[in-house]
Amino acid sequence: MTTELSYTIEEVSQFLKVSKLTIYDLVKKGELPVFRVGRQMRIAANDLDNYIKNNKTNQKTTLPASVFEPRRSDPKETNHVVISGQDLVLDMLGKQIEKNSTYKSLRSFTGSLNSLISMYNGECDIVSLHLFDGDTGEYNLPYLKKILVGHSFILFNLLSRKAGLYVKKGNPLKITSWKDLEREDIQIVNREKGSGARILLDEQLRINKISPKNINGYEHEENNHLSVASAVSTGVADVGVGIEKAAKIVGIDFIPLITEQYDLVILKTPANERLIRIVTEILSSNQFQSEVDSLGDYDTSRTGKIIYETN
């Protein structure tokens, strides 16, 4: 068997100096072939070379206009659906979409705010959100109204879950609230900019009049809940922000401080009518809700409810 060099989506995005969601968009359109190894998609080096060669102009490597301009929905495009977000439930949703339609799901593990901006730019189809707004106490809708300007959209509830602080087993530093984070004896581990957990922390710091400059470890970033929980578990940090499930997986204590509304948004376009119908049916089904309930630590009492819909 011939061993062929290949790259991950992230490696290709770094090489081409574009976002990962831009690469997913190229995959969705069939412009960049991929193959799967388990859950991970990879791009063969030869296919990447061919893509670059095919898009050269005047001997300079340039990307087509579609990379830099918002994608316009076209029913003739390949039948891929890009689902952006990190929760395991999104993998379950992708499998159900494939089971109940001819769509093929592509997963992007990108934070809520960055995913929403990419949706505005036409680079993904389903975005999961848990964006807390400190001024209203609401989740998601205040951000949607500001970012998806000029777009019609529908917002579904996917589930509710507890968010709060990861602390070491037994909570030796007696951490109980957001205000404890500015203590000099506490070192935190943060999430990346654009993630829902990072926005929750920043909004709580703002509400409680705490300067990030007074938070030890504020610049230490990890890219997912499990990495944050692991940093606390191994003693790299004393506390981190995340969801309850990751704390149980890693085996540390969790201090719940807020109930997150974890939602899905889809743009309302003629090309998305079928997708919206399929997602509505899946979220409302007893089968899907039972599968989510079996994971534990999730509340599905509002799953499938339309939170907001524009005309």
Automatic annotation (TrEMBL):
Ranges of residues in domain PBP: 99-283
Protein's name according to its UniProt entry: Molybdopterin biosynthesis protein
PANTHER family: BLL2305 PROTEIN
Stretches assigned to the Helix-turn-helix domain: 7-55
InterPro entries: HTH_17, PBP_domain, SinI_DNA-bd
